[in-house]
Amino acid sequence: MNLHEYQARDLLKAAGIPLSDGDVAVTPTEAEAIARRVGGTVVVKAQVHVGGRGKAGGVKLARNPAEAAEYASQILGMTIKGLVVNKVLVVPAAEIATESYVGLILDRATQKPVFMVSDAGGVDIEEVAAKTPEKITRLAVDPRYGLLPHQALKLALALYRDWDQARAAMKIMHQLYTVFMTNGCSLAEINPLVTTPDGKVLALDAKIIIDDNELDRRPDLAVLRDESAEEPSEVTARRANLTFIKLDGNVGCVVNGAGLAMATMDLVKYYGGEPANFLDIGGSSNPEKVVNALKIITADTSVKVILFNIFGGITRTDDVAQGIVTATQQFKVKVPIVIRLTGTNEKEAFRILESVGMTVLNDMDAAVSQAVALAKAAA
Amino acid sequence: MNLHEYQARDLLKAAGIPLSDGDVAVTPTEAEAIARRVGGTVVVKAQVHVGGRGKAGGVKLARNPAEAAEYASQILGMTIKGLVVNKVLVVPAAEIATESYVGLILDRATQKPVFMVSDAGGVDIEEVAAKTPEKITRLAVDPRYGLLPHQALKLALALYRDWDQARAAMKIMHQLYTVFMTNGCSLAEINPLVTTPDGKVLALDAKIIIDDNELDRRPDLAVLRDESAEEPSEVTARRANLTFIKLDGNVGCVVNGAGLAMATMDLVKYYGGEPANFLDIGGSSNPEKVVNALKIITADTSVKVILFNIFGGITRTDDVAQGIVTATQQFKVKVPIVIRLTGTNEKEAFRILESVGMTVLNDMDAAVSQAVALAKAAA
Amino acid sequence: MSIWIGKETRLVVQGITGREGSFHARQMMEYGTNLVAGVTPGKGGRTFEAKVPVFNTVAEAVAATQANCAVIYVPPAMAAGAIEEAADAGIPIVVCITEGVPVLDMTLVMPYIAERGVRLIGPNCPGMITPGEAKVGIIPGSICTPGPVGLVSRSGTLTYEVVHHLTGNGFGQSTCVGIGGDPIVGTNFIDVLTAFNADPKTEAIVMIGEIGGTAEQEAAEYIKKHVAKPVVGFVAGQTAPKGRRMGHAGAIISGSAGTAEEKFVAFEAAGIGIMRRPVDVVELLKSVLK
Amino acid sequence: MSIWIGKETRLVVQGITGREGSFHARQMMEYGTNLVAGVTPGKGGRTFEAKVPVFNTVAEAVAATQANCAVIYVPPAMAAGAIEEAADAGIPIVVCITEGVPVLDMTLVMPYIAERGVRLIGPNCPGMITPGEAKVGIIPGSICTPGPVGLVSRSGTLTYEVVHHLTGNGFGQSTCVGIGGDPIVGTNFIDVLTAFNADPKTEAIVMIGEIGGTAEQEAAEYIKKHVAKPVVGFVAGQTAPKGRRMGHAGAIISGSAGTAEEKFVAFEAAGIGIMRRPVDVVELLKSVLK
Hints:
By secondary structure, chain A is of the alpha+beta class. Chain A is built from 13 helices and 18 strands. Chain A has helices spanning 5-14, 28-38, 65-75, 125-131, 149-159, 163-182, 219-222, 232-239, 258-270, 287-298, 317-330, 346-355, 364-378; strands spanning 23-25, 42-46, 59-62, 79-80, 83-84, 88-92, 98-107, 112-118, 137-140, 185-195, 201-203, 206-210, 243-246, 251-255, 277-280, 305-312, 337-343, 360-361. In chain A, strands 7, 8, 9, 10, 11 and 12 form a 6-stranded antiparallel beta sheet that branches. In chain A, strands 1-6-2-3 form a 4-stranded antiparallel beta sheet, with helices on one face. In chain A, α2 (28-38) packs antiparallel against α3 (65-75), α10 packs across α11 (317-330) and α11 (317-330) packs parallel to α12 (346-355). Chain C has helices at 19-31, 58-65, 76-88, 103-115, 157-168, 189-198, 215-226, 260-269, 280-288, and strands spanning 11-14, 35-39, 47-48, 52-55, 69-72, 93-96, 119-121, 127-130, 134-137, 146-153, 173-178, 204-210, 231-236, 273-274. In chain C, α3 (76-88) packs parallel to α4 and α7 (215-226) runs parallel beside α8 (260-269). Chain C starts with 10 loop residues before the first strand and ends with a helix.
């Protein structure tokens, strides 16, 4: 789960990390008040979960409170990559002497939290990693021991030669590690960590991603989810316990299992089509889930055909068949449905579907190529 | 540092461990109010750092608030083993179904915190350990991982067969471990952990010892020290950065280094004397420390002779000599002083002391046997 | 046995009285797995399906039944503790089926099991099956048949799809291992490849990967250097967008790393037979196994 | 060398610019110890006594000077971190002089150094000296002289007292090791006894214990089984009361355990020569070393 910048700032602040002043606003009046309080030139930043906010006009420099209000009214309500902006962050435009990058990421290779820091900060760190990897200092933390003082020192010395700044950075490393561990993060990033002309070390922008698997046991983190900042169909899917990701194609997919769902999308592409979504109904074959899946997919008007690919293991294919029948009786599905079922209880599944006049396939390739052909015909 | 029972209870309560009701009182009126609030029969317990409070009349059962006040007025101000009682704990006399022991101790052998639990609780656990060790379940916790769920379960099942009680005990094990680790304990003990007739699990009495080495970095723990409950001469010594323990003999000892101090006391005993104290002036040979040491020792009227045993390594023996001269000029020392000095700057030390007419010895055995002879002569 | 499980497996099921645990315990018993014990704290003393004793702790189960393999069906927040309990009780092979285990929990589980020399499969995996001998996990026994093909996969139903093609075309399996779709898993491709390479019953290997991470690339490197047996491979997620978690916590393309295409490139460089579709496994195996 | 330190020691002093650190660094240099580097975070780039380079980190010191032994004089709250830093930098022998290190810190230091194969002496110890070769710590060099007696002790000045008798009576020392007076120390009696037993330069061993714990009893057991060389021993604290910490954090009699008398009994059972007084060491050694 991605947090908004202002939420990430709140977690960092709670851990004691020095941050630039500022606050979040939902109206131009609020933005103006924040700008007046912090004084001087401010930055008004759209709070949405997409990159490229600046290019889309979601980040503006305001020289006074009136301008802050004006830009806030422009940005609030604007749509960036399909997402409506409901909140802006108003922060002072800090005077900056140096910019660094400090990131802490859950690393698969070492199976540990790994710090990545670089004094080439303020820019895209992936670009730095790709072009000048020697500018990045990496350090894996053994969670049995936590971040040790000499490790924090090593990271701090990679950023600063000035001893006061290095000490400030050491403290920030410890605090960021605490934020990461206590909030179940898979990423916690300060970019940039700046020094001001008078030598202070300050976090300007923050990014935090929380491991979705933490949310069940951590209601305090779960409430940070801002559903207004997500694709509405994905929110609906999650509420129905479905894993759904909207894509740009026209072949709607309903599959059980994440690996098979990806392989199905790949096969759509292989046969010349474009998948409209990733959708995993999971292991348990509740007919209700199938109904919800069909509701979400049919709401997407670009979908020209719906493809079911179900391999019954734990999933009972007759339950899925029943779900399809229930759904098509509840609401009219205007696009053709291609169904591939195999595995547990498949005879009963075939009987159920054929009894309402639907045809069913047994083979994945046959089903996918048929679905692609139907989508092309409809396009 | 030993905590009072009521302080230990406060730490346990803060960690969420279920405790019997009750509070600490410094006046009979307060004790009466607590007894009225908790209702029924209460126990009034002297808060002093010595064992055998009950036998000394420091623990009384009061059937009503008036009795609680009466007993509190008897106990407050009483002296138990030389220590004045300034506080009493007033707790309900709980109805008890079963009594268990739960202790967590810093174990030298495993170099880990080790749980010791037994369903033979409420009695002296050392007696249980000595006579029926099979009744004690021991479990070492690896501090890199903390107390793991299956370990807490094992401990809980050693105490209770009832599943609700076992679950309550599991939670208490985790909480006690947290108390131990977050407060720098060397011992944290619940004795007894009881079940009530209606099946609840409850901590009745608690004992906590905090590692003295934690106090410098943990002012929040250091303030828990109750100097009014300690031997006054030891408080004075600690404030002067001396390690001092009062004993019952008449040969006052001033030594540098803990091992040599113990060996000096042993040698006093070997030559037929009795040491009046353990006193380590430490490594740095500040003359001021010597003056303070002499002040503390001469305040003890049972001391018949003062024995210096200084092996100069880091300690400069001339500094010690200077301290002795300064002290004897500041105040009159009424008992003979036997001085053994050797090592760093010993020539200068001898000169300083001999210049004021004091004799100095070079050999430990000679000095100790002379001191013992002088003490015997004075007794 | 082929690898890790077989006739000599003495299985304990952790969470045997739960909904998932009891269902799959029955399935495993029906398949013929030697299920010797169950564990559910607080339910010790009961008997499962009139045959299998239930204990409060794994240590008790091991003491009473000499269990040598554990499979875990407990809720996500309790999974790490269950793995540690099995490891501490001396179980050498632990399979964790549970999905949704917080990744930070796994960062502590990994050194804990390493210190005890325990092999962990999963979490969030379908488990293992040695057809005709033992099934530990949730892979449907009906789609498998004994034979010379070792299969290792990061996913569940996609594995079944491939096994379905294998069995349907006469290619039986030595052991099928689902290593799981999480960013941190106890057993990786290389561990399984090493075991298959050393297993005399395995003649060819099928490897099914996914987007995310670099496990497939490292496996390819390992195969190039150390694996003599023929390997064919697939990578799911060729059409996945960047930065989105495709169901599995581990199936996410971060920045430019972890794409299906770079994994296929590594496969090709290692001489692994490329499956562009799951069904391709049949023709590829025909060409390497006469 | 005799054990652990000698002419080949390349020493780095952690906390070299502090009051204690600088004083003892000078003492060690004067004794002839090969002091190659100092470390004080934030003081990197300076030079100590116009000879020894000072670094910000131990890793930098090791890279520049190939230091192979570290001695620590930092405040108690920073001692655990200093030990971990030295261990992580690849230093195989670390001596921690600092007194007052919280014991819970040591419970994490111990596995950390064990994983890295590091020998730690202390904390709260006087360190080591191999007379005529190297001094690492605070044992006064002037009281020592080379010879065949290995000495191991839990205390500081009491050690000096015994060494004083040794040197004064013609018994030189191979190495003197102060293992420290804390409840948890990196190196215990058995570690040192094992090394002395294997050291050809050591012909007899003096062991100086204290009340508290069972380290002396375990050492006696070890001596009985494994040490061929003659051993004489003392235990300080025969007159110590129960339950009071006698200066050293480890010198405390808990309940009925850890008394001097039970340690002496163990010594006798192991054939160790009993010193009732420090001076007894002389006659006892005369009887075993002709």
